[in-house]
Specification:
Number of helices: 11
Shape: elongated
Largest sheet: 8 strands, mixed, barrel
Distance between the termini: 127 Å
Number of strands: 25
Length: about 500
Amino acid sequence: MKSGKKIAVISLLMMSLLLPNMSVFANIVYDKGEFSGTEESSWERADSRNDDPELWKLQNRASLKSTYAEQEHPDSYYVHDERFDGFLVEKGADISEFQGSSIDYDKVKADGIDFVIIRIAYRGYGEQGNIRYDAYYEQNIKAAKAAGLDVGIYFFSQAISEEEAREEARYCIDAAKRFGITMPLVMDYEFAYDSNGTPGRLAKRAHNGTLSRQDMTDICNAFSSEIKSAGYTPMIYADLNMLTNYLYNASVSANADVWLAQWNKNTTYSGEYYYWQYTNYGVVEGINARVDKNFRYVKPLPGKTNNLRMYNKASNSYWFGWDSAENADGYIMYRSEGDNDNYEKIATVSEGRLSYADYDLEHGKTYHYYVRSYNNIGGTYYYGEKSNECSITVNFVPGATENVRVYNKTSNSYWLGWDSAENADGYVVYRSEGNTNNFEKIETVTEGRTSFADYDIEHGKTYYYYVRSYHGVNGFYYYGKSSDTLKVKITL
């Protein structure tokens, strides 16, 4: 027998004395009577890689688990933090080669499991920190996806540098691309020890101060940064002790989702998290082994957006508003030009706003709009039902100029006035002398004025006037309907 296996067997025998109602192997993976030849070979394969941190966890299950976890509890036993009131609570399990090679994922799904997070690889806790793939990760991912489960992946890390963390992230990214993973990609960051209780590479450096709290936080954030750069959502798995005493958890959660491990009836962690591993001693149909079980908190889908309407028309824009949708973090505005089937996203509206102004318009064109609410949970976007459609035909032409009149006369001028025209930036005054055949522009009136004084006049002559409003948008000028012609006989 190899020395490594001797150590493992001695450790198992000692543990069997502590737990007399379980078989030797039950304390690692299997309940009494469930151990088969197939699973035994997987145990031997794992034992040959004896710096696997997952193996260390299984060998020390008795000392790691909380006292309540001596038996399986129903889901109703657990108390969810009040911050998740109104959230959907989904159930999951995390899987490695130590759950065996013959998992029936159809039974897993039928037992109420919504998602599984599968180990793809690990870094050994020995000084060399060798990386090895999980023996069954490919078949587990394929079978779980075929059963219709949501599938995530994790890397059991023992990283002691940012570069090692980025290396582990690349393993996750490669697997995510190969298997079409859309759930967050996870770094499992926790301590491991050998069978004599000697700290592994990560634990040793954390305990002796070689790795500071900031160093370990930077390592987690390096993993997250690498994952994000590839377009995926990162997640850090850590237990309460790690998150509270060895990481700056606010920095970690600012860069990644957090998967909290706290094997208890309820959590006591005040930081952010959306996944909770509540037991390492779970039972799931289709898995012939004890298994870690988890809750995932999903914010409910946002409600439908109602009452989309155009509520204001400005000089160069149209303003739209809508009613607030339940559970919405924001809204997406879509627009189609002329064709209702050709919608494109034109804006994201957030920070509680319920309106949008469209400036990218052309006079005379017809546009159609709708809005959808959304919320963002752990980097995943969920969308509500689309709103009613709202259509406009853009008209930048100002209103007609009316009531042109002479309202004052001086010794050398006649003063003309008119009513303000809707949406007018200014007015153009035209004049013809003696008849109505030779109108010429004589003045542009701006700055909100609605009057003009004509000094270029001669006693006894007759002049004809009309006024026309105008409006400028993006360098183009649009003119309103001309006023009625005003005939003026000059008498100075």
